[in-house]
Amino acid sequence: MPKEILDSKDIKRVIRRIAHEIIEKNKGIENLCLVGIQIGGVILAQRLASQIESIEGGKIGVGALDITLYRDDINIKKEQPVVKTTDIPFSITDKTVVLVDDVLFTGRSIRAAMDALIDFGRPAYIQLAVLIDRGHRELPIRADYVGKNIPTSLNERIDVYLDEENKEDKVVLVRGH
Amino acid sequence: MFKSKDLLGIKDLTPKEINFILDTASGFKDVLARDIKKVPPLRGKTVVNLFFEPSTRTRTSFTLAGKRLSADVVNFSVNTSSVVKGETLKDTALTIQSLGADFIVIRHASSGVPHFLSKILNISIINAGDGANEHPTQALLDLFTIRSHKKKINGLTVAIIGDIAHSRVAKSNIYGLTKLGAKVRVICPPTLMPAGIDKLGVDVFHSIEQGIKNADVIMTLRLQLERQVKGFLPSLEEYFKLYGLTAERLKLARDNAIVMHPGPMNRGVEIDSEVADGPQSVILEQVTNGIAVRMAVLYILAGVRR
What was the ipTM of the complex prediction? Predict the structure, then answer.
């Protein structure tokens, strides 16, 4: 049965900590922007951005990136994935782009996200912030900022629920699916 | 969700499948607005355009759609091919498949050619116009264009004016629009109105003034100039006088009605230049949308399990 790993208070604290870490590592928010990976990373990116702005003042760019067209499993997946919106309304060239996703697993989504990002410009740095790292990397990819490390087995699943109104947020571990 | 490896006609599609294609096309329209108009999903795949009839829009559109998806696109020129030496359609198609094509985009003067190819080949067949039967990607881009202006198709009144009997664009649009819940009116002289067309669920008009009243969308079709010679019409001037879409007649439709034409236009025959170039015309948008829609079709068919 699903086991709750993080509740909405935990998630709030994690976001606050990661926001501080991002500001610390980059010595401020100059040239910083966040790009959330569809679907799970988009709300996270927006919340992180608000948090960062309220800590440092000023505004940073937030974009949404759909990686469906860059996936390496188009012929393997059972269901045809739906192409979603990509909206990066600013130049990423020479910026520090922090990619944001909810769960880091095999690393293939991040690989796809980097390929997609490079088609938009030439960032000075790409960093990665994830809410959960569940292990089982298949590619040499690592996150710069991690909310929580949750060791999992391959027949388990991590579900992240981020509600727009901040009420029903939770991270849940589902066994044996 | 998509079961068939081919796109042969709108007749075989469910409303859900049509909407899936249109939603996917929205995503691709974003790609076309970028600086680097290229994405990788069809990398290593080969698209062959096999056009037995002339085409500007459809062929170029499919070529660009394939290239934007990183596919290799080959334009097969029929009149410098062995078809001229008498090679059969079947052998031509089997040869192209053996050369490694993954998609054949076929336009042919005979209805049913794409269906024939889909049976004898393992690869994906896309109908780019077969005789007077269907032109599914045209209808899809028309639906996409209408949806982008009117938000939804259900409940709209769409008037189609032109040579309905000989028009595959009309046919495909009638299927698509009725499946998505629009009220379709067909308008043309009795000589160009096919018998039994009302069985497709459309309302028949011989008067443009009546048919166009309060329409949300007006679709004008190309009048094939050969029809005059064959005796279907007294003259092109007569056709324009009775059925041409002029600015005056356009006023009878809704204020925010959009004017469409699949191209190529005969200015001054089925449509007046003032209307074609006017503020209600979405004709050039249709062309742009065509690439996004064809990208969506290629992308979706590429993902269908064989």
Answer: 0.80
